[in-house]
């Protein structure tokens, strides 16, 4: 395992880390004991960073992390997110009183005294333009409730706006072989500003594992069912904004990336890790087997210049126009 610094912070995190949305909820059935075994397996293999949010299972993911990391607070870093438990369009959601409560509730569930990285969870761009929430977060830093803060964004425009704030430590961005737009402007600017990038939805909600067929079905409480067309939240969070059957078709055209890399999952994660702007990539998981498979990406063969050019051309000619929603 290699470790990378998150921007200008003193947080050195495993280049492959894990997100906990799937073990919290909205990804179909889960098994808490298997989730805890998977967290232990990840930590035993060098993972020292996990991303979560207060709304993942209404705090359940944070509680699982508390159990898994008990006694390891100095070794294991946790990022959590806030705002989506309230009305994200109401400025009161971002007041000192509200944000303090979000932080304190997360700290209680996590069993910690301080949050390593506190992130605004995909707020509307108007909130980012207003900027008062950043003053609130600076207050929480002064109070010692949080070490650093960042923003999880839906679009490049939102990310570029955030980079105007000198106190932001990280951006969490949808980035994968199907979502290459951040490479154009956002990543170079983030590097220039010393802001870390957390790559989320790296496997396009499973499309880039190659395991789905056009007739694959998902459980009722799985966002890959109920948010398939953006009915519940931004469509980009599900299948990277691609219509499902089109996504399966496009993924199958990428079967060639598996050569010398074991499988499509490992290849897709390896491609992300080869970008210097990335601080860490945070795939989800529901069991030990998935954690183990994702970690094998670290040993996958690197991509050649020709392969990288082929993937860029594939995105431009076949994928970009198929992505729905702003990004």
Automatic annotation (TrEMBL):
Claim: Oxidoreductase is one of the keywords in the record: yes
GO molecular function: oxidoreductase activity
Domain NADP-dependent oxidoreductase: 15-314
Top-level class of the enzyme under EC nomenclature: oxidoreductase
E.C. number: 1.1.1.-
Alphabetical UniProt keywords: Oxidoreductase
Annotated InterPro entries: AKR2_Oxidoreductase (IPR053135), NAD(P)_OxRdtase_dom_sf (IPR036812), NADP_OxRdtase_dom (IPR023210)
Coiled-coil portions: none
Record carries keyword Kinase: no
Protein name: Aldo/keto reductase
Organism whose genome encodes this protein: Planococcus shixiaomingii
Lineage, top ranks: Bacteria, Bacillati, Bacillota, Bacilli, Bacillales
